Amino acid sequence: MEKSALQKARAAYQPKLPKALQGPVKAVEGKPTQSVGNQEEIKKLFPNTYGMPVVEFQPAESENTQPINVGIILSGGQAPGGHNVVCGLYDGVKSLNKSSKLYGFLMGPGGLVDHKYLEFTDEYIDEYRNTGGFDIIGSGRTKLEKVEQFESGLQIIRKLGINAIVIIGGDDSNTNACVLAEYYAAQKYGVQVIGCPKTIDGDLKNEQIETSFGFDTACKTYSELIGNIQRDCNSARKYWHFIKVMGRSASHIALECALQCQPNICLISEEVEAKQMSLDDVVEYIAKAVAKRAEDGNNFGTVVIPEGLIEFIPAIKKLIAQLNEVLTDPATGEPRQFASAEEQIDFVLGNITAENKAVLESLPADVKRQLCLDRDPHGNVQVSLIETEKLLSAMVGKKLAEWKKEGKYVGKFGTQHHFFGYEGRCAAPSNYDADYCYSLGYNASRLISNGKTGYMSVIRNTTAPAAEWIAGGVPITMMMNIERRNGANKPVIRKALVELDGAPFKYFAAHRDQWARETAYVYPGPIQYWGPSEVCDQCTKTLALEQQKK
């Protein structure tokens, strides 16, 4: 493939590894673990992979160097650094034994089921080192849930002599990895399954997983764009920019971008829910900030909005939960089918509570229609399609117009709208993500060589220099609980939401009133790959605050 000058220069970058992975390793096991919730139910569902100990790797004199064949799957949405996980795994299995092989299943989990794959070579791998995207083998959203899929996958696993499967994905994909690991263990097939924590949304983390890969790069990419808009905003001084950023299930991206850029307003979905705010409450909060800046002659500003905000407004959350229930066929668990959009809307209106119907009817016609009609492949509301940034700016404009008639507002309110989503998913990884992802992949090879299955590859202490990072594994069952999904109770990895008593949110909350009134913008600029360490090798502000290293 044709390479840009940046790609050529980045290809020569050698990602850093924790000291423990720079030679032979031994696995040091901790105490037995339990799931974060519903312990008895999770234990019953995963009897062969439940309660395993956390593992930490330490330097050793020697290690198992038998050749191992591994299959790798990229699952779900793209995240910067995914290629380096593959490269790290490749280098890891080859460092154990040159005869080891790595196979990539094409276009996600479906590649395993449909037997579509390629074998990696040095030449092929070298084309993708330190690059963004998932185009090395492609990704997909097929869910691995059914016995027929597991058995079909086993056929190609046996044919290729594969010892282990590594699944790179978010909470849903790693839940599937856990189910697959349990099935192969129960059948005594001798096939290991390892997961890697990926999602730019940042909601796959816990005491063992400090951050999901791609979050650092995506937030730096979005923050550069927000900073550029703020510079323009402060130059033209005539627009309020409403900027929606990715993060349906949690507001980690919005919070991190706020910490980096200091916009006038940043909404945190988790706070909106905790304070039981209505849509009108949110609108009034923004309108008051706009009015106060207008008093100072500043008829411009920036508002950062998390993608999933609507779903966190309590009344709308209840509505969406019931919509997901009534639009799922209880017999099949699949989305109900309708002859027309009108038939579907009529069905919804006739099958939701009077309270939820009143909330639905109170929304603008286009939003109401989206909630009733637009579903993802799993039957859930397509929250990302709701143009929350335009909805909020229109409602703020309407409220300001009312206040102007009452003499409560003296400014002008012009708006611009932005949604930053795909812009951040395939960016060239930052040094942090390049190193972190390579380590995750290399570490996965050691989990496999040490006979582990049902584990997530984890790298901790990542606010320290890479040599001091801690490598190991955590049982996926440790992160699981039971949740209601599409009308049924299912075992899933618990999502990590923004903690309102956590250091990152507390820092934001302590400064947001100042940022709202003043023009305190920060312009982060592009990701830096070369230069002083304090510029190039920094983790996110979120992680630094969580680790209390400001």
Task: Break the fold down into its secondary structure elements and pairings.
Blueprint: H1 5-11, E1 25-29, H2 39-45, E2 55-59, E3 69-74, H3 82-96, E4 101-105, H4 109-114, E5 117-119, H5 122-126, H6 147-160, E6 164-169, H7 171-186, E7 192-197, H8 215-236, E8 240-245, H9 252-261, E9 265-266, H10 269-274, H11 279-295, E10 301-306, H12 309-312, H13 314-326, H14 341-351, H15 354-362, H16 365-373, H17 388-405, E11 415-420, H18 431-449, E12 455-460, E13 470-475, E14 480-485, E15 488-493, H19 503-517, H20 533-536, H21 541-546
Parallel strand pairs: 3-4, 3-6, 6-7, 7-12, 8-10, 8-11, 9-10
Antiparallel strand pairs: 1-2, 2-13, 4-5, 12-13, 14-15
Helix pairs in contact: 3-18, 8-9, 9-19, 11-17, 13-15
Description:
The chain has 550 residues and is an alpha/beta fold. It folds into two domains: 40-214 and 429-485, Rossmann fold, CATH 3.40.50; 215-425 and 501-546, Rossmann fold (3-Layer(aba) Sandwich). Helix content is 42%, strand content 15%. It contains 21 helices and 15 strands. The protein has helices at residues 5-11, 39-45, 82-96, 109-114, 122-126, 147-160, 171-186, 215-236, 252-261, 269-274, 279-295, 309-312, 314-326, 341-351, 354-362, 365-373, 388-405, 431-449, 503-517, 533-536, 541-546; strands spanning 25-29, 55-59, 69-74, 101-105, 117-119, 164-169, 192-197, 240-245, 265-266, 301-306, 415-420, 455-460, 470-475, 480-485, 488-493. The chain has a nine-stranded mixed beta sheet, sandwiched between helices. Strands 9-10-8-11 form a four-stranded parallel beta sheet, sandwiched between helices. Helix 3 (82-96) links the parallel strand 3 (69-74) and strand 4 (101-105). Helix 13 (314-326) packs across helix 15 (354-362). The longest helix is centred in the middle third of the chain and has 22 residues, at 215-236. The protein is globular.
